[in-house]
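Input/output pair, single chain:
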Amino acid sequence: MRVDGGEKEQNLARAEERLAQAAANGAQLALLPEALDLGWTHPSARRQAEPIPDGTPTRRLAASARRHKLWVCAGVTERADSRVFNTAILIAPGGEVVLRHRKLNELTIGHECYDQGDQLKVASTDLGNFGLMICADGFARDRVLSRSLCYMGADVLLSPCAWAVPAEHDNAATPYGALWHESYKPVAKEFQVWIAAVSNVGPLTAGPWAGRKCIGSSMVIDPAGWEVARGPFGENADTILYTEITPLARPARGCGWQEREE
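Output:
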């Protein structure tokens, strides 16, 4: 989904349109990008972030969830007193926020915009057990955050993202996605979970990465470690991907868990 830095109303209207379209095509859960209200690391975050659940972005996303009887996972900027977080929320079809994750492994260049989260949680739903992470959380050292969510019982990991490349990036010469394959595939295979990551598209017009462009390439990895869905690459590649996900029955995890044979 295209996200324009600092343009909250425009971005929320676009999100509402995408949710309506996804629901009309039979989706039960929709995953939206990181910081979709204001754009990742846009300087407006410190001024315009709003609380959860009472702020405008959450209220409007919750209204769409109710209207379309849809689970919604989205990345928004969150104000909590004097702090601002890069946050992901999971909203139930009744409009309740059932899970909130504040990004833990923020890039150094994002520290001026966002405070650091300090928790991981998993939500049990009628669709399965969901764990939330955000973008760089997925490549924390030793994949500790995604693996921890798996040990906590997640069947599906949902990750709002903002994947950006330099303006001169040649995707034919260096296809985008290797970092995420290296981060996601071993965890999906080891723990037999699904991982879905959705990036925005569009130029970064302000902040530390101004001049870069967000390029989509969203992906879904199945419990065998295969990529089963991939979005198109490009700053104008605004599209919706549809994937059927069936959580697997698997053994309880703990110190006795062993990796499957290659």
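Residues 255-262 have pLDDT under 50 and may be disordered. Residues 8-230 form a domain with the Nitrilase/N-carbamoyl-D-aminoacid amidohydrolase fold (CATH 3.60.110.10).
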